[in-house]
Amino acid sequence: MTAQNPPQPDEPAGPAAAEDEAVLALAHALLDAARAGDGATLLGAVDRGAPVDLRDASGNSPLMLAAYHGHAELVAALAGRGADVDLLNDRGQSPLAGAAFKGYTEVAEALLEAGADPERGTPSARETAAYFDRAEITALMEAPRA
């Protein structure tokens, strides 16, 4: 392969391309683990050096996906490993707003305990909780934090 003869789509991939594919496969597996609440897989990888704030094509982090799918223990564990609890996805949504939208009180509590800001995002978690009449989550956001 030379500059005059670029690789064709049907040519076998070189070592770098194979490595890129392996990294992408791992990233997808970790994001799937977040959705499924598979802490053993996800946290094990993070503990071995995988980026805790990895993001998918829509800007969703593992913490966002765990929050949106109702996995409070995994959310707390990710936050404990340094995940950004206020990291917005590409639509400007925060993990706390996702928890408020879905009505996951335990997830909202875990996020708030980890320092999540109810005013982050568009709409904010506070606005989302009010819109969907999530009284328990609104009360959590109003409660003083230590």
UniProtKB/TrEMBL annotation:
<feature type="repeat" description="ANK">
    <location>
        <begin position="58"/>
        <end position="90"/>
    </location>
</feature>
<keyword id="KW-0677">Repeat</keyword>
<protein>
    <submittedName>
        <fullName>Ankyrin repeat domain-containing protein</fullName>
    </submittedName>
</protein>
<keyword id="KW-0040">ANK repeat</keyword>
<dbReference type="Pfam" id="PF12796">
    <property type="entry name" value="Ank_2"/>
</dbReference>
<dbReference type="InterPro" id="IPR036770">
    <property type="entry name" value="Ankyrin_rpt-contain_sf"/>
</dbReference>
<dbReference type="InterPro" id="IPR002110">
    <property type="entry name" value="Ankyrin_rpt"/>
</dbReference>
<feature type="repeat" description="ANK">
    <location>
        <begin position="91"/>
        <end position="123"/>
    </location>
</feature>
